[in-house]
Every structure is written in C-alpha cells, then in structure tokens.
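Give me the fold.
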Amino acid sequence: MKIQYDPNEKQPQSRLLKKTLKGLLNVSLVAVITATLFTALPATGIGFKSPLFQPVQTNGENLGSETPVATLHVGLVVGHWGHDVGAICPDSLGGYREVDINYTIADLTRQYLQAEGVEVDLLKEFDEHLKGYDGDALISIHADTCEYIPELGTGFKIAEAVDNKRPEQAARLMACMKNRYGNATGLRYDHRITPDMTSYHAFSEVDPNTPAVIIETGYMNQDRELLTKNPSLVARGITAGIMCYLNREEISTE
C-alpha cells in the first residue's frame, strides 16, 4: 500500500535538527574562509594587478618610476672615409693607408664608448649627417704623414675650431683628450697645429652647440708600430679622453 504524506504535516524534530546544524556549519565555514582570505591579502589592496591600481603613464614614461638618465651622444668622424685614402706609406714601410688606420681606431673607439653606455655615430669624412650635427661631442680621427721627419716626426696633435661658439666646452674637451690620450699612449704632444686643423671643414658644419675637435693620433712613419700593431691602445686613449669630458673628470695639471 502506498503511503500518502500530507505536505502540511509537521516534519519530525530529528529532521529539523539536522537541517539547522547543517546551516550553522555552512555559515561558520564561510566566515572562516573569509577571515583567512583578508588576513592573507596585503594592506594596500587586492592581491592582483588591476589597471585601476597601475601608475599613470604619459608619453610612454612611468610617472611612478625614477626619471631616466639622458643618453650621452657622441659623433666619431673617420678621417678620409668615403672620400679618399689620405696619407699612404711606401711598400717598404708596409704600404699602410691612413683611411684604414683611422677606421680601425674609430671603430674600436665606438665599441669602447658603447660599452660605457654612450650612443655613438660613426661618420664619413663628408657625411651628410654632419650638417647641423647635435651631440655632446664630435671627434674627427686622423693620422699624420708617413714622411720621415727627423726628431719631430712623432707625437699627436689636437685642435679645436678657430671660431668656436662654445669655447669653454671645447677647451675642456681639448684638455681631457690631451691628458688622457698622452697618458695612455706615451706619445708627446706636438704643438705644431696647422690651419687645416683649426679650420677643419666639419667645425663649420655641426651645430654650434656641439664641441668638436680633430686629433692626429700619431705619425704613420715613426709611430706606425703603435698605430698599426696596437690600435686598441690608441682607441682606449681616445675613449678615456672623451669619457673624461663627458663625466667632468678632474684633469691633472702635470
């Protein structure tokens, strides 16, 4: 016989007790989980990244971070590159071409400067980018004649523009280059600066605010061992001079 239940009939007390206990247990469990969750969360907010909590960015810069350091920018002109070969040594002295010596030294200098975090432009002798060139410094790298000059045919020369718009900066660049290059290579400073150096064409082409100098790294005759066998030392001397200027290093008075 099928038993019929009256929906209005009161349920047994045991069934009501079970439902009550189950409800209390669920409430307690939710309370424990909630307390644990908020205890574990950081005091600053929800524990995941949300666009609402990210620092505001403007023009790609994060305003919540430190101001980025400006990149130093230097131009290196490879003497005679893209124009002619410059001075040439006779076959008896190795047949060296000035442009090849200049390029090797300039490219090594570029690598050393980049290792210091400096942005470098390697430029040809009459590079179109020289017009209005704006940088922290411009150095044109050359080597001197391969002719034999008794007693005086050794050493290096550095010159700035005869009409310089930033004389103090150019003078400091000159001083840094003379000091650091001389110390690195051991070459004497040759004071016989020619008008071709002080009136070097690039001086009138670059931006007036770019301090610029030209360096004759040595004579291709009596200094050729240094220039051809140890160009890395020459490049490190130029690099040291440039970094002295860029970092405003102290210059020895000796």
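The chain has a mean pLDDT of 81.
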